[in-house]
Amino acid sequence: MAEADHQLKLVFLPFFSTSHIIPLVDIARIFAIFGVDVTIIATPANAAIFQKSIDRDSARGQPIRTHTLKFPFSEVDLPEGIETFNADTPRDMTYKIHRGLSLLKDQFEQLFQDYQADCIVTDMFFPWSVETAAKMNIPRLIYVGGSRFAHALGHAIEKYEPHAKVESDTDTFVIPGLPDEIRMTLLQVPDSLRTTNEFTYMMKAIKDSERKSFGSLFDSFSVLDGAYLEHYKKVMGTKSWGVGPVSAWANQGEDKAKRGRAKVEEEEGWLKWLNTKTEESVIYVSFGSMNRFPLSHLIEIAHGLESSGHNFLWVVPKKQKGDEGFEFLEEFEKRVKETNRGYVFKGWAPQLLILDHPAIGGVVTHCGWNTVMESVNAGLPMVTWPLFAEQFENEKLLVDVLKIGVAVGCKEWRNWDDLPEEAAVTREEIRKAVALLMGDGEEAKERRRKAKELSQEAKKAIEVGGSSYNSVKEIIEEIRSYKRGKVMDKEA
Ligand code: UDP
Question: Which fold has domain 263-458?
Answer without folding.
Answer: Rossmann fold (3.40.50)
